[in-house]
Amino acid sequence: MVESVVSEAPGSSRVARRRDRRKAEIVRTATTLLSAQGYQGMSLEEVAERTDIAKATLYHYFSGKDELVGAVIEALTVDVNARLEAELDRVADASHLEQLRTLIREQVRILTDTAPEVATLFSWPKSWPESFDPMMKDSRRRHDAVFRRVVEAGMAAGEFDCPNADVALQCLHGVLNQSSLWIRPSLSGERRAELREAVVDTAARMFSPPSSGPR
Fold first, then answer.
1. How far apart are CA 131 and CA 87, in angstroms?
2. Computed from CA positions of residues 9, 143, 113, 72, in that sequence, does the dihedral angle turn out positive or negative?
3. Is residue 115 a contact partner of residue 50, using CB atoms and an 8 Å limit?
4. 16: number of CA atoms within 13 Å, CB side?
5. Residue 104 in contact with residue 204, Cβ under 8 Å?
């Protein structure tokens, strides 16, 4: 989920590519530790040990813990939004309702299946220093913008019966965040898939006209 932290230009040197790969490995390790232990529990010593480098070497890539955590937040934000945009491109010719359902489905899949660390760090974050508030708010704003674009287009087209987009989107994100608590890994694959579709159906009803009924 954090590969986007690496940016390998076509003409980049072998040394630069090796550095980028190591940087991505450090971010992946930090993501795992953050999701398991929270900000306070993650230490640079453990990150260095798990990536098999000296702690001093870690400072060649990141100036300190906060910069590394910031890289984790940014990488996850970029990756999640890229997945959502890819799904949106896939259904670009569909109705706005189907586009929204597709976004909801993919977000639930990310939170409960493909990248549960996103739920841990964003949906139910443990204590974060206040210095991260602007970064977290920016991450949520960029994520919300993907959904908002579809909702506002649906409203403009008269496809959505949504008196207040801000309220509806807040409710939607609340439902999506809760999905990681409902759809647990201990459930069977069939049951998890069933619950994901139930979330999609229920959440989408906040936007579709009452006359359209359930899908």
1. 33
2. positive
3. no
4. 8
5. yes
Can you tell me the distance from the alpha carbon of 199 to that of 180, in angstroms, rounded to the nearest whole number?
11
46: which residues sit within 8 A by CB, 6+ positions away?
33
Residue whose entry in the numeric block shows the structure tokens 């260095």: 48
| Number of domains into which the chain is organized | 1
Question: 72: closest CA among 104, 96, 95, 39?
Answer: 39
pLDDT per residue as tens digits for the range 164-184 = 999 999 999 999 999 988 899
In 3-state terms, what secondary structure has residue 144?
Answer: helix
Spatial contact of 154 and 160, defined as CB atoms under 8 Å apart? yes
CA distances, 19 to each of 32, 71, 157 (Å): 20, 15, 48
pLDDT tens digit sequence for 36-64: 999 999 999 999 999 999 999 999 999 99
CATH number assigned to the domain comprising residue 169:
1.10.357.10
How large is the average pLDDT for residues 29-42?
A: 93
Question: What distance in Å separates the CA atoms of residue 23 and residue 20, rounded to the nearest whole number?
Answer: 5
Count Cβ atoms below 10 Å from residue 181 Cβ, excluding itself. Answer: 12
Taking a C-beta distance cutoff of 8 angstroms, is the pair 175, 199 a contact?
yes
Give every CB contact of residue 211 below 8 A, 6+ residues apart in sequence. Answer: none
Task: Find out whether 4 and 79 touch, Cβ atoms under 8 Å.
Answer: yes
154: containing domain: 3-212
